[in-house]
Amino acid sequence: MTHPGYESQVDLLLDGELTPADARELEAHITGCAECTRLRDERLALRAAITAGVPTFQAPDTLRDRVRATLAAASAETASAETARTERAGAEARARPRPNRVSLGALWRPMALAASLVIVAVGSWNLALRQANHDRLAGEVLASHVRSLMPGHLTDVPSSDQHTVKPWFNGKLDYSPPVHDLAAKGYPLLGGRLDYVNGRPVAVLTYGRRQHLINVFLWPTTQGQSDAPNARDRQGYHLRHWTTPEYMYWVASDLNLAELQDFVRLLQQAD
Amino acid sequence: MLPHMDAAYTLARYWTRNEQDAEDIVQDAYLRALRYFDGYRGESEASARAWLLTIVRNTAYTARKRGRADALTTEYDDTEHSLAAVDDRPDGPQQQRDAKETLGRALDRLATEFREVIVLRELQGLSYKEISEVTGVPVGTVMSRLSRARARLQEVLRDEGGV
């Protein structure tokens, strides 16, 4: 009550709605303010209680079946309207030998179309989402790569020793990324850094090749998530993406394509 | 196969406070989603979920309005401008008020506009902006509703002896 403005600020902080700079400032204030500390702890307790006591629900299988059937029926309606229109046009074109004959095909087609429409609708939705997701990630990876090339941003732990770089991530990430030294193959390890991609902190390993830099981004795959390898070029940089059962990989570099392919292959073999 | 159905069903359950109504809402919402799909211009998995939840929410909202008109009743009115955070409508699933009120029950008894922001934020992790899109109110309103809903739930928690 001493400073009412802070109550909403604490909510913003806990809901992840503050910029990192504002969040740090507020956290510093909270540490020194008993009132705000109490407020924050109460909110945290409430959140814990909600997580523990308020369930989310799983849609019952019967509902899934119902929805699937409804969508199929809706598609069939659209499809049979389509068919009726083409049939009519067709009948007129054929003059009038057998005007009223309904072919088996005409009955069968809307059904098949309906079934495929549902599959296509859901399938293309997922596909479109994955595609959009890739575009977004590629943008984030590229931005991070370009930023890392600015003075002083390349590594948090400059070291060519994999046994220095790997443990450095302990306590900074909830996973321990595999770090390989490829110096013998002509790609010396330069170091590692933390970055923020895909809404999470991720490990970035930096390798060199002559004057060129290669940034390797990796983070754990979420359950069952795997997608096709992906290659794209943007603003003169090459981006490569692949997944292993454990990690999502993105690589960004201005290295020539042949050597970058070679590097990617070495990295995949090392895993 | 059908994306985001658990999220859709959870929102509908808390909106309607009733299993059967929730299932009807979800079915109706997916049908609408299929029809409106051409108009969908989202970019990420998260925005697809927000888009779908918006349809679920609007479907539930429309269904409730229609239900009320059918019943020709004005016995209860929790309009958007309601000042009371607590919904004392006696026909909720938790109508028997035991002496000890649990958090789940307290949530059920919140007026819909407060209940939905809690569900979207705490159970489904939507950002303020996404909640604003789903519920069709400005971000500032989302914040004040969240704040009041939390204050109310916190009282309940305190009475439980939790904090």
What keywords describe this structure?
heterodimer; A: 271 residues; 3 domains; seven-stranded antiparallel β-sheet; B: mainly alpha; Butyryl-CoA Dehydrogenase, subunit A, domain 3; globular
Furnish the topology, listing elements before pairings:
The complex is a heterodimer of chains A (271) and B (163).
Chain A: H1 5-14, H2 20-31, H3 34-53, H4 61-93, H5 104-148, E1 157-158, H6 162-168, E2 189-197, E3 200-209, E4 212-220, E5 230-234, E6 237-243, E7 247-253, H7 257-270
Chain B: H1 5-16, H2 19-36, H3 45-71, H4 103-109, H5 112-123, H6 128-135, H7 139-160
Helix pairs in contact in B: 1-2, 1-3, 1-5, 2-3, 3-6, 5-7, 6-7
Q: Which two chains form the greatest contact, residue counts included?
A: A-B, 42 and 44 residues
| Percentage of residues in strands of chain B | under 5%
* Biggest sheet details of chain A: 7 strands, antiparallel
Q: Name the CATH superfamily assignment of chain B.
A: PhyR, sigma-like (SL) domain
Question: What is the second-level CATH architecture of the largest domain in chain A?
Answer: 2-Layer Sandwich
Low-confidence stretches of chain B: 72-85, 87-100
Shape of chain A: flat
Count of folded domains of chain A: 3
- Strand elements of chain B, count: 0
Main beta sheet of chain B: strand number and arrangement? none
N-to-C SSE series of chain B? HHHHHHH
Query: What structural category arises from helix and sheet content of chain B?
Result: mainly alpha
- How widely separated are the two ends of chain B? 42 Å
- Count up the domains of chain B: 1
Shape of chain B: globular
**Gyration radius over CA of chain A:** 28 Å
Tell me, what is the CATH class of the largest domain in chain A? Alpha Beta
CATH architecture tag of chain B: Up-down Bundle
Describe this structure in words.
The complex is a heterodimer of chains A (271) and B (163). Chain A is of the alpha+beta class. Chain A contains seven helices and seven strands; from the N terminus they run αααααβαββββββα. Chain A has three domains: 5-53, no CATH class; 61-129, no CATH class; 136-270, Phosphorylase Kinase, domain 1, CATH 3.30.200.100. In chain A, strands 1-2-3-4-7-6-5 form a seven-stranded antiparallel β-sheet, with helices on both faces. In chain A, helix 1 (5-14) packs across helix 3. Chain B is mostly helical and 163 residues long. Chain B has a single domain (5-160), classed as PhyR, sigma-like (SL) domain (Butyryl-CoA Dehydrogenase, subunit A, domain 3, Up-down Bundle), CATH 1.20.140. Chain B has seven helices and no strands. Chain B has helices spanning 5-16, 19-36, 45-71, 103-109, 112-123, 128-135, 139-160. The longest helix of chain B has 27 residues, at 45-71.
